[in-house]
Amino acid sequence: MHVAVVFHLLPPAPRATVRTRALGAHGGEINSRCLAALMGSLQQAFASGTLSVASLTVVMGQGASVMPVLAGGFDEEFNAVRRLLSRATYPTRLVPTMVAELEGGTCGIARGQQADLLYMVESSTLHGPDSVTALVAAYQRWSSRVAGDLILTPLAAREGDGGGELSADDGAGLQWRTLQRSSRTLMLTPAVLERFWEVFDFDSRRSRAGRQAVGNDLEAMHRLIPCLAPTPALALALYGDEPVPTDIPAAAWWQLSQEAPQEAPRRVGGTVQREAASSL
Fold first, then answer.
1. What CATH number did the domain enclosing 118 receive?
2. Are the CB atoms for 198 and 241 separated by under 8 Å?
3. How many domains does one find in the chain?
4. Is the pLDDT of residue 261 over 50?
5. Spatial separation of the C-alpha atoms in residues 223 and 136, rounded to whole Å
6. Is residue 70 within 8 Å of residue 160, measured between CB atoms?
7. Which domain covers residue 37, as residue numbers?
8. What's the mean per-residue pLDDT of the chain?
């Protein structure tokens, strides 16, 4: 299974949220910790055999304008993200937002990936070590049961998302419900992105311009393709002002985002080997 991940890192919210206060998360560390957690989850998916190939593209907005990149002057956070990505055992790419605009934004970058599944992740989304493994495995299970296309989100249904009834346990300790509305953190096939490209492109362009509306334009897609959300959740949106769900170990996920090792390259005898390194 080949999964292409596109993670959009935006500047942290100017104020603390209920969730960031509960986890003791602060400002600039949120982006690097969420990225470290996602990379740790990808590494675990490789170790479990769930993934055979993966790639990770990070679109980064804070301090990442075209001129500093061309001049070789990256700010501290940009460099921290670069150091994290250098430790990956799979292809990675760091794209400043202004450069990403030339490729159609986050959705345009995802559209250009060659993979079995696309996983588009919004900023400030915290994953657990088994999140990617569970999400990919769930997609494989559900795709064998659902006739036609399918979309999964790792986030729990929010109030107002129009969630349907919970399914029975799927055999992996998860229950799922269909959504009428969702965040933009989604797992889907390239065919779905292509089929609904105008919806994704319009939503992306409106979001980049700072224009908001009730719900989002992805609702049109969800009326035609089931979008399923798990209980308990497989990831946590830190920007939410709702309490941290009690059925996920969010505090442990946050702690692991600092402690979980990543793979770092080490050159021995003219060849590159891999060794564990701190995620931050």
1. 3.90.550
2. no
3. 1
4. no
5. 23
6. no
7. 2-277
8. 80
